[in-house]
Amino acid sequence: MTVSPDLAFHSVPHPGHETVMSTADNASLRIGLLGLGAMGARMAAAHPDLMVYDRTSAARASLVAKGGRQAESPRGAADGRDIVIACVLDDEASRKVWLKPATGAFGSLKPAC
Rounded to a whole number, what is the largest CA-CA distance in the chain? Predict the structure, then answer.
């Protein structure tokens, strides 16, 4: 996966935060999201075009009911994506979504260069 070097990055003011990074052409980025907890659920609600994985079927069902797109595994959420974001509880959860041999997201990532 590569991200085009001609994408123009810029800072967007956001109340209560220093900056939020954005691109001049967000629509061209394919983004995968791992985790639908407090932070991940808000990101998925704001960006229904994300491909999302969560370990709990209830969270996935809630997302789909709102028109979101789900993957059956972390690898499925990462496959073909330019960016993958993990919003998980702790180190153990992070290891599972990224490194689990059969389903981990790292299994689908390609070198950027």
Answer: 41
